[in-house]
Specification:
The structure is a single chain. The longest helix is centred in the first third of the chain and has 24 residues. The protein folds into two domains: about 140 residues, Rossmann fold (3-Layer(aba) Sandwich); about 170 residues, 3-Layer(aba) Sandwich (Rossmann fold), CATH 3.40.50.2300. By secondary structure, it is α/β, with parallel strands linked by helices. The strands form five sheets. It has a seven-stranded mixed beta sheet, sandwiched between helices. The chain has a six-stranded parallel beta sheet with strand order 4-3-5-6-7-13, with helices on both faces.
Length: about 400
């Protein structure tokens, strides 16, 4: 009887040990930082603050990446807290504090206007890592627990512009075609985006011009639809792209059968005839990087950039109908040149300002709210976008692009 009891005890102990082992395995993941495995404590929590919900392509992109990382790292719903629809105001500060009080070790916000409130929360909770996407102040605030992140998305937009140029070429639009572009605000982030897209178009169709209009909002379905409709009907644009987050512009393009390059995700399901391609930032590499650094007790970089090389900048799959026949092969070739550094998007020999090539330009890198351009950004023949900080600072008004006065976000 005694031997039987001992055997039962040993069997129970073995099962318990196996259960612990399996539980530990569920917390191990590839961290892409030099070590094979990362063990994430069971009490680790990460919080995400988004400006809108998943109806916005921009915010959906952040949320989807977080869910993908959650699944990859084996995190429970208790460990991943997502707060959507948080305005760019004191609500952001309050929500960041709530997440810190709930035990989050990392808190990330996704919209430019969240920054001052994230900095305020970071000062109040020095033992929590605060990260802000698209922000500009981490390298000047110099807080140990506050960081900015962005991506070299201008390279993705350039590639999308190449696809657009190939479409114009296939349509026979090679004699000064006009491209329309809908931007949210006149920020450097938007200017960098539409300029890089335009340069991609011109790499295929050198005579192309572009008109840009603004909505005054990151997400306004009606304003974006009206803006696209105006560019198509009144400005006679041959193709439309955007830096705004709703389906307004793609829907207008589908109605008018005008080719469209979207942003932050494919619109092929809604716009099967007109969708060409979309560039987007994949935030999963950044989430995994920050989680790894915090779990290991190591510092998070003040400015982090997603790139083509590290998987932070991506293109969606091409549309099934609209793209030109040779688009994928051309994109693969251009992407390889960008990754190798043999092609620079803002090569100063490829654009002019008032008819002249730039040899010098002071950029507003140390954003102090005074709009002072203090840092030389041109050397070795190109503008060094997102190398001096992660967020864009290319705000050069280059030839070939016309900015329209009308703001579709206004009544």
């Amino acid at each position: 009887m005694k031997k039987k009891v001992i055997a039962i005890v040993l069997a129970i102990a073995l099962v318990a040990a196996l259960c612990v082992g399996f539980a530990a395995c569920n917390k191990k993941a590839n961290n892409n930082s030099g070590n094979d495995e990362l063990v994430i404590p069971s009490d680790f929590k990460i919080g995400l603050i988004t400006l809108h919900d998943e109806s916005s392509t921009y915010d959906k992109n952040f949320i989807d990446a977080m869910r993908a990382v959650q699944q990859e790292l084996g995190l429970s719903n208790r460990q991943v807290l997502i707060e959507s629809g948080v305005p760019e105001g004191n609500e952001c500060y309050q929500k960041a504090c709530e997440l810190a009080e709930a035990g989050c070790k990392v808190i990330i916000a996704d919209s430019f206007g969240h920054e001052q409130y994230m900095i305020r929360a970071a000062k109040q909770y020095p033992n929590v890592q605060f990260c802000h996407a698209t922000g500009t102040k981490a390298h000047t605030e110099n807080l140990n627990n506050y960081a900015n992140a962005f991506a070299t998305i201008y390279e993705g937009r350039y590639l999308a512009g190449v696809a657009a140029g190939l479409k114009l070429q296939a349509m026979g639009k090679t004699n000064a075609p006009k491209v329309g572009y809908i931007g949210a605000f006149t920020y450097a982030e938007v200017m960098s985006g539409y300029s890089s897209f335009f340069l991609g178009v011109r790499s295929i169709v050198p005579s192309a011009t572009m008109v840009v209009t603004f909505t005054g909002s990151w997400y306004d379905l009606n304003a974006e639809y009206d803006a696209a409709n105006h560019l198509i009907v009144d400005e006679h644009c041959d193709l439309i792209s955007q830096h705004a987050d709703s389906l307004g512009a793609p829907n207008a393009c589908e109605e008018h059968n005008v080719p469209n390059v979207s942003y932050n995700g494919s619109t092929v399901a809604n716009c099967p005839r007109t969708f060409i391609v979309s560039s987007r930032i994949d935030w999963a590499p950044y989430y995994k990087y920050v989680i790894t650094q915090v779990v290991k007790g190591q510092a998070v970089a003040k400015d982090w950039n997603g790139t083509l090389q590290n998987g932070g900048v991506k293109l969606t799959a091409l549309g099934s109908v609209a793209p030109a026949a040779n688009t994928q092969e051309t994109l693969d070739s251009v992407k390889a040149q960008l990754e190798a550094g043999t092609l620079k998007v803002f090569d100063t020999s490829k654009f002019t300002v008032n008819g002249q090539n730039l040899t010098t330009y002071l950029a507003d890198v140390d954003d102090a709210g005074d709009f002072v351009h203090e840092t030389e950004a041109i050397s070795n023949g190109y503008f060094h976008e997102s190398e001096l900080r992660s967020a864009p600072y290319f705000d050069v008004e280059i030839d070939g692009i016309t900015l329209l006065d009308r703001n579709y976000g206004e009544d």
